Amino acid sequence: MADLWQNAMDHGVALARRAGEVVREALLTDREVMTKSCSVDLVTQTDQKVEQLIIQSVREKYPTHRFIGEESVAAGEACVLTDEPTWIIDPIDGTTNFVHAFPFVAISIGFSVKKQIEFGVVYSCLEDKMFTARRGKGAFCNGEAIQVSGQTDVHQSIIATEFGSSRETDVVDKIFSSLRKVLCIPVHGVRGAGTAAINMCLVACGSVEAYYETGLHVWDIAAGAVIVTEAGGVLLDTEGGALDLMSRRIVAANSRIIAERIVKEIDPFSPTRDDAPPTL
Ligand code: IPD
Q1: CATH 3.80.30.20 fits 154-263, yes or no
Q2: Is the model's pLDDT at 1 over the cut of 60?
Q3: How far apart are CA 122 and CA 131, in angstroms?
Q4: Which CATH class is domain 2-145?
Q5: Nearest by Cα to 269 from 145, 186, 164
Q6: Which of the two residues, 278 and 143, has the higher pLDDT score?
Q7: Which of 156, 192, 230, 240 shows its CA 20 to 30 Å from the CA of 202?
Q8: Ligand 1, atom 8: nearest CA belongs to which residue?
Q9: Which residue ranges make up each domain of the chain?
Q10: Ligand 1 atom closest to residue 93's alpha carbon, by position in its atom list
Q11: Res 41: pLDDT
């Protein structure tokens, strides 16, 4: 089995690279923008094209494997994580960045077996940085081992977060209240790359001490989750319990000390779970 997953990861890396070429080419042409759940939840033909490219190629090689893909779920497919080998794909993490040519865009591919992430591939394709990790085997960027920062003083830290795509007043109020409290700990700064996957890689390589967000999805964080833990980091739910990949809430940090300190400042809320049955 071990070698099989290594082969699968190698295939994931090759596909992420190919997908990155498609994204880079698309940036040079017109990007036709469509919307999904609301006017600021964007999608382009490139998101759909890249997801199809990845799924088709994996299906040819691994016909029994399952998929959770951002655009397939948007098109009505179920978002259920089973014990079966499952590829969890965000074809473009940072679609809004892509639309505006803001230069952080990632292809994110996580792979789970028995609901545990076995490997993760995040290709920051405009920076040409390939982040990879396999459970128990360390985390890497372009083949070099990476590690979280050793900083345990939150006052000396940079924290990453995002505003997400909800514009509902009560959600925005909670996001700003948490942001205000985190900023005023005080921390050195708050940043956001505009993609959950890259924010998690920034934790993994020690550029920020923590990243938190509520409202993202399993495909945004599946690959990054194993990259963070293999780089020595910690994952928590925003209320301090164990991370639940389907709950749409995450704190990823360099250490338990920093993760728990950030949890204290977050006003938690619970968006509809990714695996909730569709409403009629
Ligand atoms: C989004 C990005 C963004 C985060 C959102 C995600 P997408 O993913 O990761 O940083 O704030 O919650 O949905 O839509 O660009 O794949």
Answers
A1: no
A2: no
A3: 5
A4: alpha beta
A5: 164
A6: 143
A7: 240
A8: 93
A9: 2-145, 154-263
A10: 16
A11: 86
